[in-house]
Write a structure and sequence with these properties.
By secondary structure, this protein is of the alpha/beta class. It is built from twelve helices and 15 strands. The strands form three sheets. Strands 3, 4, 5, 6, 7, 14 and 15 form a seven-stranded mixed beta sheet that branches. A six-stranded parallel beta sheet has the order 10-9-8-11-12-13, sandwiched between helices. Bound molecules: NADP nicotinamide-adenine-dinucleotide phosphate (NAP). The site of NADP nicotinamide-adenine-dinucleotide phosphate (NAP) has 29 residues, from helix 2, helix 4, helix 5 and helix 10.
């Protein structure tokens, strides 16, 4: 089979190579999948650059989440959604995944939609419900609302009965946030979101802030978090990890809440299928439906990852192997 692999770290377009490699061998407790769709995540870009918290040995294949069809054993032919195990990621024609990680998908769900409903939606659901305890009628501020993580959080916030304010970089992305259901969307490249959030909440601020950008965006978010608010630290797409002064949290009576969805897979594994069942139910009720901003051939992985790293994508970017297209 063929897979995208990198033998050295760097920018995706410089280091990814399309190589023939042996078919992966399944063993006890695993399933071999034909990859039907692989969804990209910002961490795939960081993995190529060697800047992600996980550093797989070289050579490795990026790609953290796939929708695929089981190729062997009693589950042959079943379509599943799964996270992968680096160094054997999903940017390949086949991949072996842990059987316990293989989640069922509704027959009516397309492979690109399914592949888009794992990491970002699980992170959003666990982040908003479990970590931030978002309640009906509360105000949720979602930063980078047109991105993968942000677009899922807008939909999940609305499905949870919150009023959703989103920020995004530029008028086009602001429109995307509105189409995703945000009640108000702010272009944070041209306008300070702090006074807007305060105006919209009669000076109170947002009850929950879902921040995947970090840096200055985190710093400014502390200025518009409500009394008893929860500021969820999701990621650092902006590149700088902000400091959280504890005296400020004390004086304003808010919480800074860390979120690392991947840890649930090892420390509380039952959370993943439970969350998956809740997400599939929301999809079947029409309350969430991932924005697949681009569906491209698997052969375009380097360009697609470069665009993701350059802030030039909306929603999820999904790659489809040629034979499954
Ligand atoms: N905590 C967890 O468990 C967890 C799980 C999944 C992902 N994450 C993290 O969440 C973050 C977002 O991931 P994603 O897959 O949603 O990525 P994405 O689709 O590329 O979205 C990231 C968004 O961040 C904004 N951004 C602001 N400054 C940026 C910069 N300098 N470079 C690139 N983007 C910038 C961009 O939106 P605007 O142009 O609108 O600003 C961009 O669309 C990443 O840091 C990722 O590691 C965390």
């Amino acid at each position: 089979m063929y897979a995208w692999r990198l033998h050295e770290l760097g920018e995706p377009q410089d280091v990814l190579r399309w190589e023939q490699v042996p078919d992966p061998e399944p063993h006890a407790g695993t399933l071999r999948l034909r990859v039907d769709a692989v969804a990209l995540n910002f961490p795939d870009v960081l993995l190529c650059r060697g800047l992600y918290q996980e550093k797989p040995p070289l050579p490795f294949t990026p790609g953290l989440e796939v929708c695929g069809t089981v190729l062997d054993g009693p589950r042959t032919g079943e379509r599943v959604l799964a996270t992968t195990n680096l160094p054997q990621g999903g940017l390949a024609e086949q991949v072996v995944v842990a059987e316990a990680a293989a989640l069922p998908i509704p027959p009516a769900m397309s492979a690109p939609t399914a592949a888009s409903m794992l990491i970002t939606y699980q992170t959003g659901y666990v982040g908003l419900h479990r970590r931030a305890q978002l309640r009906v009628g509360e105000t949720l501020l979602v930063h980078a609302g047109a991105g993968g993580v942000g677009s899922a959080a807008i939909q999940l916030g609305k499905a949870a009965g919150a009023r959703v304010i989103a920020t995004a970089g530029g008028p086009e992305k602001v429109r995307v946030c509105e189409q995703l259901g945000a009640d108000v969307a702010i272009d944070y490249l041209s306008e300070d979101f702090v006074p807007v959030v305060k105006d919209l909440t009669e000076g109170r601020g947002a009850d929950v802030i879902y921040d995947s950008v970090g840096g200055d965006v985190f710093d400014r978010s502390r200025r518009c978090i409500a009394f008893e608010g929860r500021l969820v630290v999701v990621g650092f797409a902006g590149g700088r990890i902000a400091e959280a002064p504890t005296n400020h949290a004390l004086v304003k009576n808010y919480s800074v809440v860390g979120l690392h969805w991947g840890l649930y897979r090892s420390l509380q594994p039952q959370v993943v299928p439970e969350t998956h069942a809740a997400l599939m139910a929301l999809w079947e009720q029409g309350l969430v439906d991932p924005l697949v901003g681009a569906e491209l051939p698997l052969g375009e992985a380097p360009t697609a990852l470069t665009r993701l790293g350059d802030r030039a994508t909306v929603g999820k970017v999904v790659l489809v192997p040629a034979r499954a297209a």
